[in-house]
């Protein structure tokens, strides 16, 4: 029962981490971090991401323009680019490391200590990836709220609001965090099997043979 629970937690943890990593990549390139609706023209909406700003018109469709200068961007967008790239890289590294630590993988099936360490390291990488995804998303959201309620800006001026990418980024970050928690719980909170089936049977047969002969096991 403990082995089934351990494998189930590993499987769910990897799936959540994979989902969070994919959503983190989507968030990085999705041009919907901020939305701007013009009251004077309902048929025209503006969106902004980390790489480009887009205008959506009912007749023309969606037209985007890349930002020309990195240094000309606001601080939150510059830092968000770096942190999102870091999150994507750490998530990929976490998938590779924790994948070799899964019990269902036959590679290194007798080296449970190594597999345990790989799972723990993978969980830590997913934690770090989740935090580095949540920080830029939350920072951009905080700046958006501050600018929205800024009394120095005239009420007639349109205000930026939350875009869909922020909600996807939050979901991605929490998925990475939860996936890392499950992997570390599977590594530290449950008992690892001593060996796979054929090794356990061989060990049991050897012990039975020594008991029948009335001698002690050499390793005892």
List keywords for this structure.
220 residues; 5-stranded antiparallel beta sheet; 60% helix; 10% strand
Describe the protein's topology:
Layout (H helix, E strand, L loop, with lengths): L1 H28 L4 E4 L6 E5 L3 E6 L3 E6 L8 H25 L12 H37 L12 E2 L1 H25 L8 H16 L8
Antiparallel strand pairs: 1-2, 1-5, 2-3, 3-4
Helix pairs in contact: 1-2, 1-3, 1-4, 2-3, 3-4
Compact overview of the structure:
The chain is of the alpha+beta class and 220 residues long.
Question: Overview of this structure, please?
Answer:
This protein is of the alpha+beta class. It has 5 helices and 5 strands, in the order αββββααβαα. It has helices at 2-29, 75-99, 112-148, 164-188, 197-212, and strands spanning 34-37, 44-48, 52-57, 61-66, 161-162. It has a 5-stranded antiparallel sheet. The protein is elongated. The relative contact order is 0.19. Mean pLDDT is 83; it is low at 194-212 and 216-220.
Residues in helix, %: 55-70%
Element string (H = helix, E = strand): HEEEEHHEHH
User: Strands of the biggest beta sheet: in what spatial order?
Assistant: 4-3-2-1-5
N- and C-termini, Cα separation: 28 Å
Shape: elongated
Task: Give the class from helix and strand content and strand pairing.
Answer: alpha+beta
**In this structure, how is the largest beta sheet organized?**
5 strands, antiparallel
Share of β-strand residues: 5-15%
């Amino acid at each position: 029962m403990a082995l089934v629970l351990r494998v189930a937690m590993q499987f769910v943890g990897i799936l959540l981490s994979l989902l969070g990593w994919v959503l983190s990549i989507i968030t990085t390139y999705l041009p919907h971090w901020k939305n701007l609706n013009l009251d004077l023209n309902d048929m025209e909406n503006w969106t902004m991401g980390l790489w480009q700003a887009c205008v959506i018109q009912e007749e023309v469709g969606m037209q985007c323009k890349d930002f020309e200068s990195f240094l000309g961007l606001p601080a939150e967008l510059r830092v968000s680019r770096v942190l999102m790239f870091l999150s994507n890289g750490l998530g990929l590294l976490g998938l590779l490391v924790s994948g070799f630590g899964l019990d269902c993988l036959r590679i290194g099936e007798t080296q449970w200590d190594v597999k345990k360490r790989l799972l723990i390291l993978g969980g830590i990488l997913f934690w770090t990836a989740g935090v580095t995804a949540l920080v830029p998303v939350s920072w951009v959201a905080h700046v958006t709220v501050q600018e929205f309620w800024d009394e120095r800006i005239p009420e007639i001026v349109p205000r930026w609001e939350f875009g869909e990418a922020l909600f996807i980024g939050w979901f991605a970050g929490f998925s990475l965090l939860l996936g890392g928690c499950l992997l570390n719980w599977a590594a530290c909170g449950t008992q690892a099997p001593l060996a796979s089936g054929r090794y356990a049977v061989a060990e049991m047969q050897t012990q039975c043979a020594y008991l029948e002969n009335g001698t002690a096991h050499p390793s005892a």
